[in-house]
Write a structure and sequence with these properties.
- With 324 residues, the chain is α+β, with helices and mostly antiparallel strands.
- The protein folds into two domains: 175 residues, Probable tRNA modification gtpase trme, domain 1 (Gyrase A, domain 2, 2-Layer Sandwich), CATH 3.30.1360; 108 residues, Elongation Factor Tu (Ef-tu), domain 3, CATH 2.40.30.160.
- 17% of the residues lie in helices and 35% in strands.
- It is built from six helices and 19 strands.
- The strands form three sheets. A seven-stranded mixed beta sheet has the order 1-12-2-8-11-10-9. Strands 15-14-18-19-13-17-16 form a seven-stranded antiparallel beta sheet, covered by helices on one side.
- The mean pLDDT is 95.
C-alpha cells in the first residue's frame, strides 16, 4: 500500500480529526562532539545546558547584532544536538555555525539520512500508543524508541514529529493509513500557533522579540553570553522593540503571492503595514498570513495591496506577549 500526499489545501476547520503531514521540506542541523553543548550554548538564545534526552527547547540562532538566522526546536538524538527547522532557513545558520565551530571540538553537519513526518489530531496519541511502548507528552516531550524519535508539540491540536530513516517513516505512514497532507498544512498550523517561519529571504532581518520568541520560551535571559545577547537584552529591558509577530487572515478572490504587500489605512491613504514571513491559502480562498507588524496599539484597517477590496484581520494567538 502506498500513501499519496493529498494536493488539497483545507482550512483549519476542514481538516480531518486525525491526519499525517509529510515534512518533506523539514530538516535539522546536527552538532556532536566533546564540546557540542559548550559551543552551542554560546551561539543560541536558549539554555542548551538545561537540555536533556527527553527535553524540547525552542531557540534562535542570531548574528552579532542580534538578527535571527533561524528559529529551531532543539532535541537530543544519538548523543547529538539536533536543531529542527524548515530546510529554507538552514543554509545561512549552518554556514555561520561552521564558521566559528572550527575553534571548538564539535562536528556540525546537515542531517541527510533522516526523514520527518507529523501526526496531528485527536486520536494521534492513541494511535502512537498502539505502535510504541512510550509516547511523549507535555512532561516528557521527546522519547526515543529504537531508531525512532518522537517529539510532542502542545497546542490546540496535539502534534507529534516522527523522526527516522525514510523506510521506517514510509512503513509507519502506510500502517496508520490516514490522510496525508503536504508541508503547506504544517505551515498553516505554525502560523496559527504563532511559531515563526523563516526562509533564506527573511533570515537575518529580525531580533528574536520581533518574532515573539520571548513569548514562547525561546529566550533565556539568565544563561549568560551568546552571540547577539546584548541586543536581545537591550530590547527586553529597555523597551526598544516596537514590532511583533502576528497571524492575519483574509478571504481572497485571487491567490496570495509571496511578494504581496499588506497595507494599513492612514486617513485617506494606504501604507505598507509590515513584512510578510509566510502564508497559507486554502482551496476555499481563506488565507492566513504570518507577518511582522508594528506593535503599538490597536491594528488599523488592513488589506492585501494587490486585492484592493480585501479585508485583513488580526487573529488571536495562543499566547500573550510579555510586556516590553
Amino acid at each position: 500500500m502506498t500513501i499519496t500526499t493529498s494536493k488539497q489545501l483545507p482550512s483549519l476547520a476542514q481538516l480531518p480529526e486525525t491526519y499525517l503531514i509529510e515534512l518533506s521540506k523539514f530538516g535539522a542541523i546536527s552538532l556532536s562532539g566533546e564540546e557540542q553543548s559548550k559551543y552551542l550554548q554560546g551561539q543560541v538564545t536558549c539554555d542548551v545546558n538545561s537540555s536533556t534526552e527527553s527535553s524540547l527547547l525552542i531557540g534562535a540562532h542570531c548574528d552579532a547584532k542580534g538578527k535571527v538566522f533561524s528559529v529551531f526546536r532543539l532535541i537530543n538524538r544519538s548523543s547529538a544536538h539536533l536543531l529542527l527547522q524548515p530546510t529554507a532557513s538552514i543554509e545561512s545558520s549552518l554556514k555561520e555555525l561552521k564558521k566559528f565551530g572550527v575553534f571548538a571540538k564539535v562536528t556540525i553537519d546537515l542531517t541527510e539520512n533522516l526523514s520527518f513526518m507529523a501526526l496531528v489530531g485527536k486520536q494521534a496519541s492513541t494511535l502512537l500508543q498502539q505502535e510504541y511502548s512510550q509516547v511523549p507528552d507535555s512532561l516528557t516531550p521527546v522519547v526515543q524508541i529504537g531508531s525512532t524519535s518522537l517529539v510532542y508539540l502542545c497546542g490546540e491540536q496535539p502534534r507529534y514529529i516522527i523522526i527516522d530513516e525514510q523506510v521506517t517513516i514510509t512503513a509507519l505512514s502506510e500502517k496508520l493509513a490516514l490522510p496525508m497532507y503536504s508541508q503547506s498544512v504544517w505551515d498553516l498550523l505554525e502560523i496559527s500557533q504563532g511559531f515563526p517561519i523563516l526562509t533564506a529571504k527573511t533570515s537575518g532581518h529580525y531580533v528574536p522579540q520581533m518574532l515573539n520568541l520571548q513569548a514562547i520560551n525561546g529566550i533565556s535571559f539568565t544563561k549568560g553570553c551568546y552571540l547577539g545577547q546584548e541586543t536581545v537584552a537591550r530590547m527586553q529591558y529597555l523597551g526598544k522593540n516596537k514590532r511583533a509577530l502576528f497571524c492575519l487572515s483574509s478571504q481572497l478572490e485571487q491567490p496570495f503571492q509571496p511578494d504581496d504587500v499588506i497595507e494599513k489605512q492612514l486617513g485617506d491613504n494606504w501604507r505598507k503595514a509590515g513584512d510578510t514571513l509566510a502564508s497559507y491559502q486554502a482551496d476555499d480562498g481563506s488565507c492566513v498570513i504570518q507577518a511582522v507588524l508594528a506593535n503599538d496599539g490597536d491594528l488599523p484597517l488592513m488589506r492585501v495591496a494587490s486585492q484592493a477590496d480585501s479585508v485583513v484581520t488580526n487573529q488571536t494567538l495562543p499566547y500573550t506577549l510579555v510586556a516590553e
